[in-house]
Amino acid sequence: MRMLHTSDWHLGRSFHRVSLLAAQREFIDHLVTTVRERHIDAVVVAGDIYDRAVPPLAAVELFDDALHRLADLGVPTVMISGNHDSARRLGVGAGLIDRAGIHLRTDPAGCATPVVLSDDHGEVAFYGLPYLEPGLVREELGASAAGHTAVLGAAMDRVRADLATRPSGTRSVVLAHAFVTGGAVSDSERDITVGGVASVPADVFDGVDYAALGHLHGCQTITERIRYSGSPLAYSFSEAAHRKSMWVVELEVAGEAPSCERVDCPVPRPLARIRGRIEGLLDDPDLDRHEEAWVEATLTDAVRPHEPMARLARRFPHVLTLVFDPERPPEDPLASYAQRLRGRSDRQIAEDFVAHVRGGRGPDEAERALLGDALEAVRSEAHEGVVPGEEHGAAATATARAGATAGEVAR
């Protein structure tokens, strides 16, 4: 049995306000071509078909096109809903679609009812475990606790119980959308810690031949039988080093470890994270290779440059995000805040604050005068008309106003 494992399509998602619909359409073309040319026997999609519960119409149309093309190939496809999907919306018409060989598994109650396919070695049972939100499915699954490990463990107990009733030699594949301990995360996955600790141990999948996982966006191997395909496209700059791909998995006889091969996905545009002072970023010849990439630039200039985005865009026309992280002089990590302030006047503290956020460049004469005037004004206001018992409140107000002035100077 040769199957293709993919997940986390996130149809309808953009990349820093840049539409990815054309790139997602290209991925679907690639998927269909791979199924046809690699003689795939089954396709498994481990959740997050859409990027949100109510996807845009263009994303729904692309999904519809993918279903029709897979059905036309006559290759069975098993899909589950992920934490980004609306299980009920995705599952509408599942019974009818099932007849076309597209098996949508979105109801936790059906997790132990497999899609059974056959090859020369016998039967393969595909169990679809949609994303299981602990607080919603605990009672339905009879889980011992309202945590991810408990509910996924309860679902897997049902899978193993069903598998035990099947003919000897039946191979098993589980599709699940979860965060398995040991997996590497990125910035683009939605947090699922609500309902308990997010990660589940890998041994929850004991007893099956292959676990096709979704949720984490990096392609990775937890064990030789437990793998993430990752997302087919990068959805954050934290994925700049990812190799986007799918798994072609060969299942031989029961008990033998599957053989797995990565198939690369099309890359619409490379990602680059560059860092340095703006003049260096504009002049460094080593950055020529990033001029056609989507760019995240981190500027380390002590003072915010004039029109940095516009200047960077002249060299990097696809720059999308700008981060400011000024270089700062080393500080004594052992010195407490109180120790650093001891013996310093309010004016010195304010000037030091300006120097700190500017990476070491303190205020000039005009700015020092402005800070001095602000401090003197708030001191006067703090002591005029203050009644006994209100000294601390007035002092706090004065400090806050002085701090605001220092912040304006720093900017």
UniProtKB/TrEMBL annotation:
<feature type="region of interest" description="Disordered">
    <location>
        <begin position="382"/>
        <end position="411"/>
    </location>
</feature>
<comment type="similarity">
    <text>Belongs to the SbcD family.</text>
</comment>
<dbReference type="Pfam" id="PF12320">
    <property type="entry name" value="SbcD_C"/>
</dbReference>
<dbReference type="InterPro" id="IPR004593">
    <property type="entry name" value="SbcD"/>
</dbReference>
<dbReference type="GO" id="GO:0006310">
    <property type="term" value="P:DNA recombination"/>
</dbReference>
<comment type="function">
    <text>SbcCD cleaves DNA hairpin structures. These structures can inhibit DNA replication and are intermediates in certain DNA recombination reactions. The complex acts as a 3'-&gt;5' double strand exonuclease that can open hairpins. It also has a 5' single-strand endonuclease activity.</text>
</comment>
<dbReference type="GO" id="GO:0006260">
    <property type="term" value="P:DNA replication"/>
</dbReference>
<keyword id="KW-0255">Endonuclease</keyword>
<dbReference type="GO" id="GO:0004519">
    <property type="term" value="F:endonuclease activity"/>
</dbReference>
<feature type="compositionally biased region" description="Basic and acidic residues">
    <location>
        <begin position="382"/>
        <end position="393"/>
    </location>
</feature>
<keyword id="KW-0269">Exonuclease</keyword>
<dbReference type="GO" id="GO:0008408">
    <property type="term" value="F:3'-5' exonuclease activity"/>
</dbReference>
<keyword id="KW-0378">Hydrolase</keyword>
<keyword id="KW-0233">DNA recombination</keyword>
<dbReference type="Pfam" id="PF00149">
    <property type="entry name" value="Metallophos"/>
</dbReference>
<dbReference type="InterPro" id="IPR004843">
    <property type="entry name" value="Calcineurin-like_PHP"/>
</dbReference>
<dbReference type="InterPro" id="IPR041796">
    <property type="entry name" value="Mre11_N"/>
</dbReference>
<dbReference type="InterPro" id="IPR026843">
    <property type="entry name" value="SbcD_C"/>
</dbReference>
<feature type="domain" description="Nuclease SbcCD subunit D C-terminal">
    <location>
        <begin position="268"/>
        <end position="356"/>
    </location>
</feature>
<feature type="domain" description="Calcineurin-like phosphoesterase">
    <location>
        <begin position="1"/>
        <end position="92"/>
    </location>
</feature>
<feature type="compositionally biased region" description="Low complexity">
    <location>
        <begin position="394"/>
        <end position="411"/>
    </location>
</feature>
<keyword id="KW-0235">DNA replication</keyword>
<comment type="subunit">
    <text>Heterodimer of SbcC and SbcD.</text>
</comment>
<protein>
    <recommendedName>
        <fullName>Nuclease SbcCD subunit D</fullName>
    </recommendedName>
</protein>
<dbReference type="InterPro" id="IPR050535">
    <property type="entry name" value="DNA_Repair-Maintenance_Comp"/>
</dbReference>
<dbReference type="InterPro" id="IPR029052">
    <property type="entry name" value="Metallo-depent_PP-like"/>
</dbReference>
<keyword id="KW-0540">Nuclease</keyword>
